[in-house]
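Bench notes, afternoon.
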Amino acid sequence: MRVLLCAVITLLLASATPVWAQPAPARHLAMRLVAESDAPRAGAPVTLAIETIPETGWHGYWRNPGDAGFPATLTWTLPKGASVGAVDWPVPTTLSIAGLMNYVYERPYAPLVTMRVPAGLAAGTKLPLSVAISYLVCTDKICVPEQQMLSLALTVGDGTATSAASFDRWRRAIPKPLDAVARYAARDGAVTIAVPYPAAATAAQAYFFPVTTGAIDYAAAQTVTRSGDALTIATRGKPVGTIEGVLRIGPAQGLAVRAVPGAVVAAPVDGGAAAATLLAFLGALLGGLILNVMPCVFPILSLKALSLARSGGSERDARREALAYTAGVVLVCLGLGAVILGLRAGGSTVGWAFQLQDPRAIVVLLLLSVAIALNLAGLFEVPMPRFAGEGGASGAFATGALAAFVATPCTGPFMGAALGAALVLPWFAALAIFAGLGLGLALPFLLIGFVPALRRRLPRPGLWMETFRHALSIPMWLTALALAWVLGRQAGIDGMTQGLLAALLLGLLLWAAGRRQRKGLAIGVVLGALILASFVVGAATIRRAAPGAQTREAGAEPFAEQRLAALRAARTPVFVYFTADWCLTCKVNEKAAIETQGVRDAFARNKVAVLLGDWTDGDAAMGKFIQAHNRAGVPLYLYYAPGAADPVVLPQILTPGMLEKLGT
């Protein structure tokens, strides 16, 4: 009875919140407002945390408190032009008292909020902010309403994370979005929710926390069963429409679930995960094969062309080089896949080509492209292992590794969905998909090595090869030029100048190395160390510049989930595209389709709103949105028709005609 009385008093207090004049003298939730970076960049997001530590024996409430209590309310006071998104709440725990089910936090927790810093602010600008929090805190006997005012003073800077370890820990407790839609069936007060979930993935302490109020009976028992690639929750309730909730899959681990009415059919017990993995593997294989004709891989095709053209050795040598090249490609793809899976397991939202969000990686690629261009032009020769097929198996392996690394800015047809599936499958299945991508990228060279008839069709070696080799330096210079442009976008004019200076110094060192080689001398330890140092120092000294005003296509607005929701509520057709400066496929689509006059006119005629998501800097909130649409990176193109529940995911290669039909 005491708990029931507490619940009634709690509801009355909730309705009377405006009359609270003073905070309670004793606070049973110790709170602290923390920023991931004390010096966020202008125009960039910064994550804020409300670090909360309950007093022993007391608990705070989740966004849906359950049968009793009420959720915290947050009122922000922000710098002019700044905005905050929705609160991301950690996975709660259950607390049943006298037959009432409560969703609570009894141990330290930290809700997260993303704040967008206004663009155009000068470094050193002060950013004072505060949040007024009204909440309920209870024991198993009493409940007390409390208020706190938390303040923080930030300063515009370079965005360096000052609390990275704490935020990594707190992010792990935030539910990850489930890419697939769940289904539920309700009849005679019984509810069965089928959540797509790989059979090989672990699910400890599984429990469904409803966000949608009134959808299920909070105090009713939940029976959780596994059936193939589905996890089924049976409980009581009378839901109507969509159910939003969180599925706990382990201690402080959960998935954000969206369930719609539909038939709940048990998936086959065996073979479900294997079939999904096989399908994604084939998609990655085909996507990797298509990468061989994508613009971002063309310079590496030049290296392969030289290697194939000089093929005149034995069949055994040809097969050995083909296998070595394939090993280089596959191992790099596996390595990148392992790093992505590891970072995501730690709470990050990185995706394919994540390393290109760091200007230091761009500098390394720029210097590497310059070195390869100078090598192809004949300025110097690379010692073992040598590129362009001059070093046997070791050269083929190095060429394959380079091909895979430079291919990361591209996401071709079939590849996006396959890599998106890899992020929700067990780690061993995910790595198999990344290996399939590498195998597809290496497949043409592999076929040449193992099919003599194909090798016989290649041109015979001759003096023409030296001229051809020199000509192939041109696409490598174009690659270096594109990378310098990307570096300028990320690090500003000063950063681009610094990168070009590093390239000039590297060129001088390689010229000195070539002079020694023409005299019959080795490059030498000192010169070799200086060449290596040019890469290390060039990358280490680059800093990301504070962004200025964003340049974007006329008529496009910056992507924000709140703006998207407002446009959809107004039944406006919306085209959303996610891009990045380092994504060559994105830039080709923008110039060839999105930014054409015909598409502009069609969008204006059909009143299609355009939202642009710039993922160049790896925005975490945007990455979460991209992941929720079963993609591991950019490009991603979505069309929201008026009144439609879900968007249409457009192909990753666009045409003007395809876009001109939107909204008709």
